Amino acid sequence: MPYTNRQAKYQKYIIIILSAIPVILHLYTNLFAGYGIFRDELYYIACTDRLDFGYVDQPPFSIALMYISNMLIGNSVFAIRLLPAVFSGLTVFIVCMMTLELGGRNYSFLLSSMAVIFAPIYLAMGTFYSMNFLDIFIWALSFYIILLILKNSRQYLWIILGVVMGIGLLNKTGFLWFIAGFTAGLLITDKRKEFLTLKPYVTYLISITIFLPYVLWNFQNDFAHLEFIRNAVNEKYSSIGIIDFLIGQLLNLNPIAALIWIPGLYFFLSNRENSGYRIPAIIFLTTALILIINGHSKAEYLAASYTVLLAGGAVFIEKRTLVRLRWIRYTMLGILLVTGIALLPFALPVLPVKTFISYSNAIGITPQNSEGHELTELPQFYSDMHGWEKLAEDVSNVYQSLPRDDRLNTLIFGRNYGEAAAMEYFKNKYPIPRTISPHNSYWLWGYGGNEDPILIIIGGDSTDHLRIFENVEQAMIHEAEYSMPYENNIPIYIARNAKMPLSEVWNEIKTYQ
After folding, report:
1. Which helix (H) or strand (E) is 454 found in, with range?
2. How many domains does the chain have?
3. 435: β partners
């Protein structure tokens, strides 16, 4: 029976309220809880100071968006995390709209939105600024547009899809997986007839045109992004196996959510009225297959593809329990909420650090990471929010201890973009000179042309540093509780009298990963 106007209005209120929940959760955390600024956020801010059509480890869209945000509201931790909070709510809104498009009603809105709101991976990606919160939203929006196209294949929808897919590529190159799945879906289903029209070609042309600046940037920079991906797979993520990837699918979405997205996969694949509705499932399966074949994919790479399955699964469950087995609805929703709330502190830093550690120990969840690093009592996600200001303060103290003439010829050397970007972020609070680093885009940004500087080197081994400098002295040991172990108890060196021009070693120390 169709909804009355009053019911439709009531439905809109439900969707708005559900969409507001993640925004409120994140804003509360950013205002009253939370930890410090995240490693990648520091790097993103550094990138906004060097706007370009590309970066070694990412396309430019998320950086350009952060630049606009910083211009409007600044780069405090709260300001940086405002957009992730808002887009978390927009993602829930799009999921509700997909649920509506698939014929869902109040219960399916509630189930699909709760599955998204309390999915640890979505909570975590909405906690800090990166390309990932945008990626999740863009995948969801693209799925929604495809559902609209399947219902009414109008030209303007294909144009909008082309724009959204182009932005998706310009945000994260992994969006190519979506496009590959979409193409496969068109070819496999009866929607292949669309290739007899101009619609899909216009879509591809628009998306490629939007993505073209990053392609050209890579041509100009020796395909830096491809080198970055190759190194990440062969080195940084080499310890990740297929089993890790598969187990991660259950943990990232909340194990209970599998009772929703698996029926959602069946819901799309079993559609007999319109085979085109298999396309969302084909996109998911194509992406999963690509990541499995890769052999060293992080589990989170598949996260953005689940939103449409959660919407489809919620509608499937609602329809199958309409007359009988209604108790399943409330049991599933209740268990989803209980487990989601229980897991929430592992994705959203709502608890003080010591309370979180006690809570983690009490329920037996130990910190893990996908990069093979030693961990503290905190997961890497949280450890990377600690210690950066203390590091900047310690480096500044070493710098200020130098004679005035030496300070004029001093540079800071960070081993990674986190260390380097932290120096730049806090330089308005602590006196710090120019910072250089061999890591990712910092290497492209160069060393400033000073061939024989005094370097204040963060970490590393003095033996390695003596290969390049005549004199290396340890100035102090930096300590920062709860930071990553490789960022804690590290020496800070003063290196003088280079044995060779810095330009001769710059290529050797390049680190793309």
Report:
1. strand 454-458
2. 3
3. 412
Instruction: Write out the DSSP string of 388-410.
Output: HHHHHHHHHHHHHTS-HHHHTTE
3-class secondary structure, 457: strand
The secondary element (H helix, E strand) that includes residue 442 is helix 441-445
Are the C-beta atoms of residues 210 and 166 closer than 8 Å to each other?
yes
First to last CA, the chain: 56
CB 93 within 8 A of CB 14: no
Q: Which H/E stretch holds residue 471?
A: strand 469-478
- Displacement of CA 479 from its chain's centroid (Å): 28
Q: How far is CA 452 from the centre of its chain?
A: 38
Q: In what order do the strands lie in the sheet with 490-498?
A: 435-436, 410-413, 454-458, 490-498, 469-478
Q: Are residues 200 and 308 in the same domain?
A: yes
> pLDDT by residue (tens digit) across 247-264?
999 999 999 999 999 999
Asked if 143 and 157 count as a contact pair (C-beta separation under 8 A), the reply is: no
Exposure string of 180-203, with b = 16+ CB inside 10 Å and e = fewer, is bbbbbbbeebebeebeeeebbeeb
Q: Are residues 276 and 200 in the same domain?
A: yes
Model confidence, pTM: 0.95
Query: Coil, helix or strand for 436?
Result: strand
Contact 310, 264 (CB under 8 A): yes
Q: What range does the domain containing 467 cover?
A: 388-506
Going by C-alpha positions, the residue among 498, 482, 500, 480 that lies closest to residue 490 is 480
Judgement on whether residues 449 and 492 belong to the same structural domain of the protein = yes
Residue 511 counted as domain residue = no
* Residues 38, 84: Cα–Cα separation, whole Å: 13
Exposed/middle/buried for 229, CB within 10 Å: 0-12, 13-18, 19+? middle
CA–CA separation, 204 and 184 (whole Å) = 14
Q: Smallest Cα–Cα separation from 360: which of 379, 387, 341?
A: 379
346-369 tens-digit pLDDT: 999 999 999 999 999 998 887 766
- The amino acid at 322: L
DSSP string spanning 15-52? Answer: HHHHHHHHHHHHHHHHHHS--S--HHHHHHHHHHTT--
Distance CA 190, CA 207 (A): 23
Q: Based on the domain organization, do 312 and 409 belong to the same domain?
A: no
CB atoms within 10 A of CB 479: 13
| Inside any domain, residue 512 | no
| CA-based nearest residue to 135, from 99, 97, 176, 107 | 176
Contacts of 116 (CB under 8 A, 6+ apart): 22, 91, 92, 95, 122, 307, 310
**Helix 176-188 crosses helix 279-294 at what angle (to 10 degrees)?**
130
Sign of CA dihedral 16, 21, 26, 30: positive
pLDDT, tens digit, for every residue of 70-88?
999 999 999 999 999 999 9
